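LAB NOTEBOOK - FOLDING QUEUE
OPERATOR: T.R.
BATCH SIZE: 2
PURPOSE: Compare the predicted C-alpha cell outputs for two unrelated chains run back to back under identical settings.
PRIORITY: normal
REVIEWER: second-year student, initials M.K.

ITEM 1
FIELD SEQUENCE / FIELD STRUCTURE:
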Amino acid sequence: MFEDGQESRDFVHVSDVSEAMALGLESDGGDGLTMNVGSGEQVSVHTIARSLQRQFTEASTLVVSGQYRLGDIRHNFADISAIGQALGFSPRVSLEEGIARFVHWVKMQPIAEDGPEDGLDRANRELIERGLMKA
C-alpha cells in the first residue's frame, strides 16, 4: 500500500458503472450534465487490503510502503447525487459483494508460466523512472 494505507477512494463495481452508462444513453435526463459515477462512499485502501486478505483466506502480509505517487490525492469519493436525481442511478453491488466477485474471478485465472508475478515491482520502477514516485 502506498502512503500509510489510510488514503481513501470510492470503489464502485464495473456492473454499476455499466448500468450508469446505459441509463445515460437511454435517457435524456442527463443531457448536458456532468455527473459522477461511484458508490458515494469513501473507503480506505487499508480496509480494501484487509478485506481481500480475508477473502483469499491465504496467509499474506500487508505491506505499507510509505511511498507516494506524485500528484496523488489523499482522499477521493464521488458525489453521486446529480446522477441519482437525473437518471435514478443508485449503485447495486455492495463493496463486500464486489470484492467477493473479484476474488472469485482472480481464483479462476490461470497462473502465468513465470509464476504469480503481479508486476508490482516493474510498475513501481516505472513510476520512479518517470518521476511520478519517490524511491
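ITEM 2
FIELD SEQUENCE / FIELD STRUCTURE:
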Amino acid sequence: MQTPPRLAPDAPIYLVYNAHSGKGQAGAAHDAVRRGCEAGRRELVSFPISKRQPPREQARAAVAAARKTGGIVAVAGGDGTINAVAQAVLGSGCAFAVLPQGTFNYFGRTHGIPTDTEDAVRVLLTESPVAVQVGVVNERVFLVNASLGLYATLLEEREAFKSAHGRNRFMAFCAALLTLLRRHRPWNLRLSAPGAEEKVVRAASLFVGNNALQFEQVGVTEGEALQHGKLAAVVIRARGVLSQLGLLMHGMAGKLEHDDDVQTLSFETLLVEAAQGSRRSSVKVAADGEIERMQMPLRFSVAPEPLWLIKPVAA
C-alpha cells in the first residue's frame, strides 16, 4: 500500500491561482490563504496564472518547489485549472489541495471540499492527505471526465458561448441546445477491455467518467463502479436531432440510463480504436473541459498511483 506524504505542521503552501478569472474569486481565495498562513506562521509562495505564465508552467514550478521543502501544492480555480495542477502533482509525492472556484465544482463537491473560501482554507491548513483515484487518457490526467465526439463539441462550443453571453448554468444549457440542433458526424469505434467482449459501435459521443456525483445527477448507475477502483463509460449511439434532444431531457431529469440510445460499461483499462472504414487518426478529447487533440488509439485507464488530496476525513 502506498503511504501518504508526511506533512510538517508548518508545511509551506505553494498556491497556483488566476487572480483575473471569473469575478476575482481566485484572487479572494489567495488573500484568504495568505491570512491563514500569516496566522499559523506558515510560508506562502504564490504562482499567479497569466498569458505569460500558463497554468501548466506554473503548476510544474509549484511542484518543483514543494518537493524540495515537503510543502503542499494548492490550486484556486475551476475544474480545468484544477486539472492542470493535478497533472503536475500526480506521481510527485506532493500533497494536493483545492480551493474550488468553478461553476459546477464536481471534483471539490465529490470530496467534501467546501465552496466557501474560508472553510476551504481551513481544510487546507488542518486536514491530512487522502488517496483519491485519478483517470488517465493517453497520459493525460482527468479528475472528473474525458470525452470525445458530441460531448467534447458541446464543451468546446459552450465555452465560446459563455464567453460571449455569460458564465452560468442557464447559458450552459442554451449552448448545449444550440449544439444539439446541428448535425454531427458519427464515430465508428472499436472498444476493448480486458475480460470483456469487444464492441464496435456507431457513436455520437463517448464519455468516460471518474466522478460519481456527475453520474448520479444524470442517472447512470454504472458510476458506482468508481468506488471499486474502476472508471465508467457512457456510449451515446448516433441518432437524429430529436433523439439527441430527448437525450438532453433525460439527462436533466436524472434518467439518462433509461434512454435506448445509451450504453454503459465499467473498466480499469479501455482501448478505443477507429473501427474499420474510419479514417480518423486523431481526435479532439475534452479532459475536465480542456480540449486537446490526441492520436488514436485512445487508452483510458485508472492511474497506477493516487492523488494525495487534502480533504475532510468525513468526506
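REVIEWER COMMENT (ITEM 2): The two ends are 21 Å apart (CA to CA).
FOLLOW-UP: none requested
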